[in-house]
Amino acid sequence: MKFGHKNIWITGAASGMGRALAIALSGFNAQLILSDRDEAGLNETAALLSKSSPAARILMLDMGNTKAINDAVSLIISEFKTIHALYQFAGISQRSLVVETPLENDRKIIEINFFGVITLAKAILPSMIASGGGQIAVTSSIVGKFGFPYRSAYSASKHAIHGYFESLRAENSKLNIRVSILIPGRVQTNISKFALDKKGQEYGKMDAGQANGITSEKAAKQILRGLKRERKEIHIGGKELLMLQIRRFVPALYYKLATRIKPV
What we know:
Blueprint: E1 7-11, H1 16-26, E2 31-36, H2 39-48, E3 57-60, H3 66-80, E4 85-88, H4 103-130, E5 134-139, H5 152-172, E6 177-184, H6 208-211, H7 216-228, E7 233-236, H8 242-249, H9 251-258
Parallel strand pairs: 1-2, 1-4, 2-3, 4-5, 5-6, 6-7
Helix pairs in contact: 1-2, 1-7, 3-4, 4-5, 8-9
């Protein structure tokens, strides 16, 4: 993937990895479309972009609103004609036990993390195919590969991302649609602060493990390297990524560790 002079749409661009990647991509003179629910954060991101890059297109977007997503796609396609790449970072996490989590919280998390993400991808896909192809990247998590305490609905939503986008890739690979699934471990972002607790309210603090994770800027470098190489899975983080190998090759050890690791 070459980023120069491409139209690239990034969701979750108001902070964290979405913001960091937008800043990195602005150095390639890419035309960026930046979306998030946080208008102030989007404007802050736009102000941090390389001065030599085109002005970013700011678009407020709630990933839990299907109509708003489809309307946004119609608007952006009418303005830019072609979207060469769609990178999705918007999402919501969870900090509550299965037994104490109301079903409406489960539904909200899966609506945003799965249905919102696939709605946007499905709406963009036909124009991408018609223009000769493009790149789609969606954000999963290491808990998209295994279950983890206090993350039941979040983990489920990320498992679903893998199944859906691996299918999308298989169906459209001959049409030059390249799909990358981003698998972050511990990254210093606001995701735990805005996670839902058992009452459906914001958790309000950064987890200790996450606070010791890599910076969003370092994560963006790892993501950019993977996107350039069109990796099908891009692992992001530090030593915690070893859990992926433990789950795959020593599942008995994973089952033991999963009950012992402090989740929050």
